[in-house]
Amino acid sequence: MNKREFIKSGLLGVGATLMLPSVLASKNFLTNDKASVTGKFFEQPPLGFAFDALEPYIDAKTMEIHYLRHHAAYTRVLNEQLSKVSVPFKSIVEIMENISQFPVSVRNNGGGYLNHNLFWKIITPGGAKLPSGELMTTIEKTFGSFDAFKSAFIEKAMSVFGSGWAWVIKTPYGLKITSTANQDNPLMDTEKERGIPVLMVDVWEHAYYLKYQNRRKEYLDAFWQVVNWDQVNSFYHLDRFVL
Ligand code: MN3
């Protein structure tokens, strides 16, 4: 089996569902079965809602540029860079988990690719406005109350200096709020605080500057109006990821 055949069989194999069996494991989400002939290993998943669907909380122009230019560029450059590396991989998650073995260009663009895939999933027009069931109970137990949790998450997101992300991750020790720089994420083996991403927010200026300029806090306050708690709940119940 040559390298291309290995990658193709790997992409289509069970390894692709190692950690994210539900929404993320669909073929369009993680992989592209034309990869072996086109060199296009990963494709940008469809957004799932119109650019203007999150108005007035996230404006249409920001969504359009964010998806069509920023996310598309991470996807394109990731594919270009992966065609030059010899490290085998079966899924984007596996790349993240072994990112220390890849060039920094794969770290930046692969992180940018996956982080936005996740982010588009956890925002939605008209989603449930609060978590429910076990997730809500766990949040209240961990952080004292849902409001205290929101404040802690916003505070972490405000503390990111420059470009990065804030996260809620599921760890063997419970839920934790963390942040990463640039396009790093809590799946990467380069991160000190690792876990299953449950909720995340993009605090790169490109995520909010057109509407909110330097007022990151207003963007973060508005963010709660578009959180897809059903999806967050699904991420929370994943347990197949092994640290
Ligand atoms: Mn972004």
What order do the helices and strands come in, and which of them pair?
Layout: H1 3-12, H2 27-30, H3 35-38, H4 60-82, H5 92-97, H6 104-122, H7 133-143, H8 146-159, E1 164-171, E2 174-181, E3 196-202, H9 209-212, H10 216-223, H11 229-236
Antiparallel strand pairs: 1-2, 1-3
The structure holds manganese (III) ion.
> Under CATH, the topology of the largest domain is which?
minor pseudopilin epsh fold
Number of strands: 3
SSE pattern, N- to C-terminal: HHHHHHHHEEEHHH
Task: Write down the overall mean pLDDT.
Answer: 86
Widest β-sheet, arrangement of strands:
2-1-3
Small-molecule binders here are: manganese (III) ion
CATH architecture call of the largest domain: 3-Layer(bab) Sandwich
Radius of gyration: 17 Å
Overall form = globular
Largest β-sheet summary: 3 strands, antiparallel
Instruction: Give the CA-CA distance, first to last residue.
Output: 30 Å
